[in-house]
Amino acid sequence: MAERTWQQQMDNWLGLLCSGDERAFAQFIDKYKETVFLCCRRLGLREDEIEDVASEIFLAAYKGLKGYRGKAELGTWLWSIAYRQAVSYLRKNRRHLQLEDEFQNELAGSEHDEPIVVTQDKEQTKIIWEAVERLPRLWALSIILHYREEKSVVDIAKIMRIKKNTVKTYLFRGRERLKQMITATLGENIDVDN
């Protein structure tokens, strides 16, 4: 019964949202702004660029809401818009995006002077997510979408507009690189496949 009421509330909210209700759209922005900011950061936008691009993302979402039919989860639909808008911005404003070179520079500049001691699972998780931040952008974005946002390979492929096998490759290579990075940092093997 409670689940049905929640679904009815969600349907009502989506109806208001799709009809252009300003209050519903303000709630939509509040609910998803961190998701949009995360996508922008993962794709390498600077903090001073993120707000402008996020505004463009929400404007595109607002314009596209009338065409939203619920085929994809609302969060997945928004990730797709955010990804396309951020990549478009990067293409227009940064023609020479060199993912591998940037990864090497970030990795070289982020060496720790002190050994990291992992005392709890929480600390280990923090180390893993910090390592994800140093992966090439597309690998990191795939890992974030899959493990943090709990998106399926199919959803990630839709969001990034790439083939499912490419997503699987990004996930595989990202996990392998993470294992190498964490082993080098901690001097021990950690299972990052979970």
Task: Give structural attributes.
0% strand, mainly alpha, 2 domains, Rna Polymerase Sigma Factor, Chain: A, Arc Repressor Mutant, subunit A, 194 residues
Fold and architecture overview:
- With 194 residues, this protein is mainly alpha-helical.
- It folds into two domains: 2-93, RNA polymerase sigma factor, region 2, helix turn helix motif (Rna Polymerase Sigma Factor, Chain: A, Orthogonal Bundle), CATH 1.10.1740.10; 99-186, Orthogonal Bundle (Arc Repressor Mutant, subunit A), CATH 1.10.10.
- The chain contains nine helices and no strands.
- Helix 2 crosses helix 3, helix 2 crosses helix 4 and helix 3 packs across helix 4 (74-93).
Q: How many strands, what sense, and barrel or not for the largest sheet?
A: none
Name of the CATH homologous superfamily of the largest domain: RNA polymerase sigma factor, region 2, helix turn helix motif
* Helix and strand run: HHHHHHHHH
Classified by CATH, the class of the largest domain is Mainly Alpha
Radius of gyration over alpha carbons? 19 Å
Q: Number of DSSP strands?
A: 0
Q: Total helix count?
A: 9
Inertia-based shape: globular
Q: Kindly report the CATH topology of the largest domain.
A: Rna Polymerase Sigma Factor, Chain: A
Instruction: Let me know the average pLDDT.
Output: 78
Helix content: over 70%
Number of domains: 2
What is the CA-CA span between the terminal residues? 34 Å
Strand content: under 5%
Q: Class by helix and strand content?
A: mainly alpha
Low-pLDDT segments: 95-104, 110-120
CATH architecture assignment of the largest domain: Orthogonal Bundle
